[in-house]
Design brief:
globular, membrane, 4-stranded mixed sheet, 502 residues, 8% strand, Cyt_P450_sf, Cytochrome p450, metal-binding, endoplasmic reticulum, alpha+beta, oxidoreductase
Length: 502
């Protein structure tokens, strides 16, 4: 047999083995008689064309029926796409003990900042959640409120220097990210980031690099997330070394300075330092079972920064976009701001912000139409029989809750592409299923910082609406396109609007 024949036989054998392997893997849902979408070798239900991950979920969701989920595949792994709101409520809330893990990737040894509360599972997550939850109570938000308002005033001053008397066309996404970067820098690290004055400040530089220049492509990141145990064995790090070094160094220097000079502030870092020293946040004289390490503190501070500045800035950007396209909604919101401020002597106080319910409805509707996180994921801790069915979700199976699809389902939200803040009046909320809005997740693993996120978004929008009017510009994209390279739902090319001083 000549060399060419040997090569061809080897090639045919390899291709045949791969084909048989995938055919066996792709029989999982068919063998169980489940509603599923037929996969394609080797990507499963992922698309060959480059697209945002939300498009993968949208394509699957179109196949929903009366069953509680759709079977799908990412590469060779089967997963559950939950479509029934009752089933989602079981996963997130009622049967949380069986779905307490996210099953994501983190590497505490090689990449300590990746081991934050959002990523870790088991007892580690339970410990961190228990200790960190008190830092985000309404009482703690009141302590941080004045700091956020100070940054908002600086934001207003920065815009006043940029906006011309006749109005200007601006790319607002970066400006809003600089505002939220300065807010998080002050509240999480107690540091004046000065991103509003200097767009290339260290915090803004590394925040931009974290999201705009990720270490891995979407395809490689997908492989890491699908095979976390293998990635850990290969010592894979999610973060770029300079990003990790910057945040670790910043936290160490901040803690060292505060402890040497006995500096105490009502901010997130101060609460973390208390936990590092074995003190309870609510009672400094009591001791905890164990203390947080410097690396654990840095990981939580990093999470607060990464999750806080990008999601809030994009939510504000989407809110302003819709207000620009819907001037009557914008004027109604501005009138609420002016009326409430007039009752409080023109001062923006914690209480006055709570009274601006229409502003909060606008934020909720922006989160509905443009959820920053397009899906939630959980992993089965043990075999689970879906109530009122014979279907078993096997241990280790990943379940995905399609947030974007639920928020755009016309059976849940009629005319879902229409921006309507009145969807979030108390009466409308009561009339919908509790799982119909998942902008902050739900259950014990919901977003721990939702109060802070809403607070800084409210303050930012109130400040802007009180001082500026927003309109579409020739560069405003209608409809919006989304950046397929960003995990968070981000407008492609930024957010261009016309802005004029009131």
């Amino acid at each position: 047999m000549d060399s060419l024949s040997i090569f061809l036989w080897c090639l045919i054998s390899i291709v045949s083995v791969i084909f048989i392997y995938f055919r066996k893997k792709y029989s999982y849902w068919r063998d169980r008689g489940a509603n599923y979408v037929e996969p394609t070798i080797p990507l499963g239900n992922l698309q060959f064309r480059r697209a945002h991950f939300k498009d993968f979920i949208v394509d699957i969701y179109q196949h929903k029926n009366e069953t509680p989920f759709i079977g799908a595949y990412i590469l060779a792994k089967p997963l559950v796409i939950a479509t029934s709101l009752d089933f989602i409520q079981n996963i997130l809330v009622k049967d949380f003990s069986n779905f307490h893990e996210r099953g994501g990737y983190y590497n505490e040894v090689d990449d300590p900042l990746s081991a934050h509360m959002f990523a870790v599972d088991g007892e580690k997550w339970k410990f961190l959640r228990t200790k960190l939850s008190p830092t985000f109570t309404s009482g703690k938000m009141k302590f941080m409120f004045s700091t956020v308002v100070e940054v908002a005033n600086r934001f207003n001053a920065t815009l006043a220097e940029i906006v011309k008397p006749t109005g200007s066309e601006l790319e607002l996404l970066d400006l809003l990210a600089r505002f939220t970067t300065d807010v998080i820098g002050s509240c999480a690290f107690g540091i004046e980031c000065n991103s509003l004055k200097d767009p290339n400040s260290e915090f803004r530089y590394y925040g931009r690099k974290l999201f705009k220049d990720p270490k891995f492509s979407t395809a490689l990141l997908l492989l890491i997330l699908q095979y976390p145990d293998l990635a850990r064995k290969l010592h894979v790090k999610l973060l770029q070394k300079d990003v990790s070094d910057f945040f670790l160094s910043t936290v160490r220097k901040t803690i060292d300075y505060r402890e040497k000079n006995n500096v105490k502030r009502n901010d997130f870092m101060n609460f973390l330092i208390q936990m590092k020293n074995g003190q309870s946040i609510d009672d400094e004289s009591s001791n905890q079972m164990r203390k947080l390490t410097i690396e654990e503190i840095a990981a939580q501070a990093f999470l607060f920064f990464a999750a806080g500045f990008e999601t809030s800035s994009t939510t504000m950007a989407y809110s302003l976009y819709e207000l620009a396209l819907n001037p009557e909604i914008q004027e109604k919101a501005r009138q609420e701001v002016k009326d409430v401020l007039a009752k409080h002597e023109g001062k923006l106080t914690y209480e006055s912000v709570q009274e601006m319910t229409y502003i909060d409805q606008i934020i909720s509707e922006a989160l509905r139409k443009y959820p920053p996180v397009v899906f939630l994921n959980r992993k089965a801790a043990r075999d689970y029989q879906i109530p009122n069915t014979k279907t078993i979700i096997e241990k280790g199976m990943e379940i995905m809750m399609p947030v974007y699809c639920i928020h755009h389902d016309p059976e849940i939200y009629p005319n879902p592409e229409v921006f309507d803040p009145d969807r979030f009046t108390p009466e409308q909320i009561r009339n919908r299923h509790p799982m119909s809005f998942l902008g902050f997740g739900d259950g014990p693993r919901n977003c721990v910082g939702l109060r802070f996120g809403r607070m800084q978004t409210r303050i930012g929008l109130i400040t802007l609406l009180n001082n500026y009017r927003f309109r579409p510009s020739p560069k405003t994209a209608v409809p919006l396109m989304f950046d397929r390279n960003m995990a968070i739902l981000t407008p492609k090319g930024g957010m261009h609007l016309a802005i004029e001083k009131i």
